[in-house]
From TrEMBL:
The chain holds residues 1 to 183 of 1161 of the full protein. ATP binds at residues 32-39. Signal peptide: none annotated. The lineage of its organism: Bacteria, Pseudomonadati, Pseudomonadota, Alphaproteobacteria, Rhodospirillales. The gene is smc. Homodimer. It is found in: Cytoplasm. Belongs to the SMC family. Required for chromosome condensation and partitioning. Contains large globular domains required for ATP hydrolysis at each terminus and a third globular domain forming a flexible hinge near the middle of the molecule. These domains are separated by coiled-coil structures. This is Chromosome partition protein Smc.
Length: 183
């Protein structure tokens, strides 16, 4: 699954609409301290369905919305859009009719988040599953934040198993089984 575009508006320090084109191969983001490098990675995590505000370095999920500066007022809405290529048609059946998928998550202050995939409103769970099968997603081992290595070394065996399951590409199976049991 190749991520080709990330668009942000009102998200953390990215108050003005910003588009990042991600070419195939390795992409590096460089810049001085506080310029928003980690915020970009958090935007990726967030649009893939992150539910923990703590993982986003906030107290509540509304903290991802631009909070204002001395010269600019705060916003009441944030939106992140991620375009992924689906040429190999590996997305779950409900999304597999398109060559390209655009996942959009939007949050409004005190009103929570909504998700859309190619314009159609979907559940958070649908987006989480879409990425879980592609060995990526908000909790993916591919996203290594500060302090993560230490926590893996000290992790409980059951938590470490989750990493192995992801490496074996079976993480989506558990979520699906849980969904099936709820029905
Ligand atoms: P470092 O090199 O130190 O890791 P970085 O490039 O990763 O820095 P970030 O942590 O992504 O920087 O960005 C931090 C900046 O984002 C801070 O200036 C912080 O004030 C700003 N910021 C975070 N959340 C918000 C928000 N909700 N509204 C406005 N600005 C925000
Ligand atoms: Mg950083």
């Amino acid at each position: 699954m190749h991520f080709s575009k990330l668009r942000l508006a009102g998200f953390k320090s990215f108050v003005d609409p910003t588009e990042v084109v991600i070419e195939p191969g390795l992409t590096g983001v460089v810049g001085p301290n506080g310029c928003g490098k980690s915020n970009l990675v958090e935007a990726l995590r967030w649009v893939m369905g992150e539910t923990s505000a703590k993982q986003m370095r906030g107290d509540g999920m509304d903290d991802v919305i631009f909070g204002g500066t001395t010269s600019r007022p705060k916003r009441n809405m944030a939106e992140v859009s991620l375009v992924v290529a689906n040429e190999d048609r590996r997305a779950p059946a409900q999304f597999n009719d398109a060559e390209e998928l655009e996942i959009i998550r939007r949050i409004e202050r005190e009103r929570g988040s909504h998700y859309r995939v190619n314009g159609r409103e979907v559940r958070a769970r649908d987006v989480q599953l879409l990425f879980a099968d592609a060995a990526t997603g908000a909790r993916s081992a591919g996203l290594v934040s500060q302090g993560k290595i230490g926590s893996i070394v000290q992790a409980k065996p059951t938590d470490r198993r989750a990493l192995l399951e992801e490496a074996a590409n079976i993480r989506g199976l558990h979520t699906r089984r849980h969904e099936a049991e709820l029905r």
